[in-house]
Amino acid sequence: MTEEIHLTRSQYLLSAIAVAAAYVVTGKLGISLSVAHGVITPVWAPTGIALAALLVFGRSMWPAVAAAAFLTNVTSGASPYVAAGIAVGNTLEAVAGATLLRRARFRIDLGRVRDVLLLVGLGAGVSTLVSATNGVGVLALAGVNRGSIGSEWLLWWFGDAAGVLLVTPLLLLIFVNRRTRPTRLRLLEALVLTATLSVACGVVFLGGAWRYPYLIVPLLLWATLGFRQLGATAGSFLVGLIATWGTVVGTVPIDVSSGAGRVEVTQTLVAALAIGMLVVGATLEEGDAAKREAEHTAARLSEAQALTHIGSWESDLSTGSVTWSDELYRIFWIPKATELSARRFLERVHPEDRPRLKEAGRRAFRDQRPFSVEYRIIPPAGGQRIVHTRGRVVDDGSGSPARLVGTAQDVTEQRQAEILRADILSIVSHELRTPLAAILNFAMTLSQKGDELGRETAAHMIGQVGKQARRIDRLLGDLLEIDRLRHGFVAPAREPTDVLELVSQVAYGNRGDHAISVEGEPTRANLDAPKIGRIVDNLVSNAVKHTPRGTPITVRLQREGADLLIAVDDEGPGIPEEYKTSVFELFDRGDKATSDESGTGIGLALVARLSALHGGYAWVEDTAAGGASVRVLLPECVLSEPREPVLTTVGA
After folding, report:
1. Across the chain, which distance is largest between two alpha carbons, in Å?
2. Nearest Cα to 638, choosing from 620, 618, 614?
3. How many CB atoms are located within 10 Å of the residue 301 CB?
4. Mean pLDDT to the nearest integer, 240-263
5. Is 552 exposed, middle or buried (0-12, 13-18, 19+ CB in 10 A)?
6. What does the pLDDT look like over 119-155, one tens digit per residue?
7. Predicted pLDDT of residue 106
8. Helix 149-166 to helix 128-142 angle, to the nearest 10 degrees?
9. What one-character-per-residue DSSP string does 291-336 give?
């Protein structure tokens, strides 16, 4: 939903009054807080209100924003000239944010991850620069600054950005869902959830249990899973409201000298949590949209089959003859000239599913009721496909069964998409929770007891924060890269590359408790260097993760004519034969019994896809020591003649 709603003159006037009133009330409240610096405050909901108003009602609503901004500031101690100058910046900020988002085809229902990122980047990150810069400049020219220009600018920008992140999504989702009429059960669930979340936030932020903020996360996940984006935004807003309240009154003991600084720390954590919930909610919304589209497609396909017999079948019970449509031959990988029979059909069905399929047919024949069954088939080239069959018994007019008729549909991609969505949700909810909790705990400890900690202890904690942040960054980067590759949005940007130097640099970046060596000859190849670096990084990280500390790891670069082989050999437990192919599938974690590390099942899948992007492939072999040798062959890319072999040890 990107279009603006059209208002009559009276509707416009009433809407403008409502927007201005909300702006003034929330603005006066923010300025009145003890943490405010005059007209600069870290709690500034009006920015979120203004941006939401211009996105919903159109940029023609700017006069209401301008008037409200002037009235708010002029009644809060600012001179008319200063208030007018600030109002100009506040108005331009909202206009710029709405313009940027609309040009980026932002949807106000936040139903895509892309929309969440646009709101964070353009709405909260970029457009707020206008008001902060203008406002601090006006105050400086008027000679009414209370502190340094840099700190005042940062406080102004932060307050506006927090308003966009916490207020704008809530208002947009309320507008989008304004005509939704929930059932009584859904209303009851919403009330119970709101009450439970309010109590939990009160206990954590007002009742002294600030050491246990993770108690709130399951409730936010409940809100997001149960009510999608509306639940995510409302829950995040409620948490932000109570957390800010607790920080202002002093029940959240953040060790920062200024009250504004304490609020900034709290709202930063809440904003990060809100963004995470919005991403989860958008992922779920995209999954729901895909499911609805699949259901719509299935309905249209069913109608087409009823008219044209595409994907349809018929079995004559008296003669035993079977008739298939052309599409059904394709689904079951059977040549059209083949004589059909029940035996021929069952040969394609997975042996474990044959009894269930036969039982469904017998039950339909006995009860003369429609049946629906899902089963696996085995194509001639191997692998598995999933087929969903529906059928019914047709009588001969006297009540005796005469024929079985029905349709069949290949639902493999639909089932894979469902599994993929479930796996993504599992990764987001599980793999991100641990590092986020660690970052929060270390940050709180440093904030509260930083002066009491020794330099070595503090440095260790800071290092752990960086390590966990890099872990999150790597996971999100791999997920985004997988998604772009899966949708075909990536093409290799080939250029002549010193592959040995590239491999050595990447391997050096993974040094730690393992001795990592690089063997090979200086070779120039026509490759996409960042993507090849990503391949090597994932291969080395995989070897480090799944081998004991101190185990040597060798990265080999070998020229095979015009082809290039990259191999990472380790002396760990190796990969069992039955997992050597599946480890390259997305979210497949291989034999978890061979390692204490669970992994995410993304790294090697990304290796396989990036290799395929270069026309190559990846596979696993065993090393002489019993470990794993994960190899990537990149064809027709070598440019230069080989030189003397080089051996470099990059870590120990």
Report:
1. 99
2. 614
3. 15
4. 81
5. middle
6. 999 999 999 999 999 999 998 888 876 667 888 898 8
7. 94
8. 140
9. HHHHHHHHHHHHHHHHHH-TTEEEEETTT--EEE-HHHHHHTT--T
CA distance 275 to 125: 13
DSSP per-residue codes, 192-223? HHHHHHHHHHIIIIISS-TT-GGGHHHHHHHH
Does 1-179 match 495-651 in CATH topology? no
Q: Which amino acid is at 487?
A: H
In this predicted structure, which of 143-147, 186-190, 308-312, 582-586 has the lowest mean pLDDT?
Answer: 308-312
CATH number for 495-651 (one of 3.30.565.10, 3.40.50.300, 3.30.70.270, 2.40.33.20): it is 3.30.565.10
CATH of 1-179, one of 3.10.530, 1.10.10, 1.10.1760, 2.30.30: 1.10.1760
What single DSSP character describes residue 584?
A: G
Residue type, 595: S
CB 147 within 8 A of CB 34: no
504: Cβ–Cβ under 8 A, 6 or more apart, which residues? 518, 648, 650
Q: Inform me whether the pLDDT recorded for 552 exceeds 50.
A: yes
List the beta strands (DSSP E) in 148-254. none
Cα–Cα nearest to 309, from 208, 405, 227: 405
Mapped onto helix, strand or coil, the DSSP state of residue 386 is: strand
Can you read off the two tokens belonging to residue 363?
């039950």
For residue 622, count CB atoms less than 10 angstroms from its CB and return exposed for 0-12, middle for 13-18, buried for 19 or more: middle
DSSP 514: S
d(CA 484, CA 256): 41
CB–CB of 539/510 below 8 Å? Answer: no
- Identify the band that residue 309 occupies on the pLDDT scale cut at 50, 70 and 90: very low
Domain boundaries, the chain: 1-179, 309-415, 495-651
Backbone angles phi, psi at 226, to 5 degrees: -85, -35
Q: Of 271, 272, 252, 270, nearest to 262 (Cα)?
A: 252
Q: What is the Cα–Cα distance from 284 to 267, expressed in whole angstroms?
A: 25
Rounded Cα–Cα distance for residues 482 and 609 (Å): 8
Highest-confidence range of 277-291, 339-353, 631-645, by mean pLDDT? 277-291
Banded pLDDT at 308 (limits 50, 70, 90): very low
Question: 480-512 pLDDT, tens per residue?
Answer: 776 676 666 677 888 998 989 988 888 877 766
For the cut 80, the answer to whether the pLDDT of residue 601 exceeds it is no
Q: In the chain, helix, strand, coil percent, each to 5?
A: 60, 15, 25
pTM above 0.85, yes or no: no
Q: Percentage of the chain with pLDDT > 70? A: 87
CA distances from 514 to 111, 185, 460, 540, 543 (A): 44, 57, 20, 10, 10
pLDDT at 304 exceeding the cut of 70: no
- 92-123 burial, b if ≥16 CB within 10 A, otherwise e? bbbbbbbebbbeeebebbbbbbebbbbbbebb
Q: Please, which residues have CB within 8 angstroms of residue 554's CB and are 6 or more apart in sequence?
A: 516, 517, 518, 519, 568, 569, 570
Q: What does each C-alpha distance from 216 to 27, 219, 238, 551 come to in angstroms? A: 28, 5, 11, 41
Position 486 scores a pLDDT of 67
What is the structure's pLDDT at 633?
Answer: 92
Superfamily classification of domain 309-415: PAS domain (3.30.450.20)
Sole residue written with tokens 């641990």 = 434
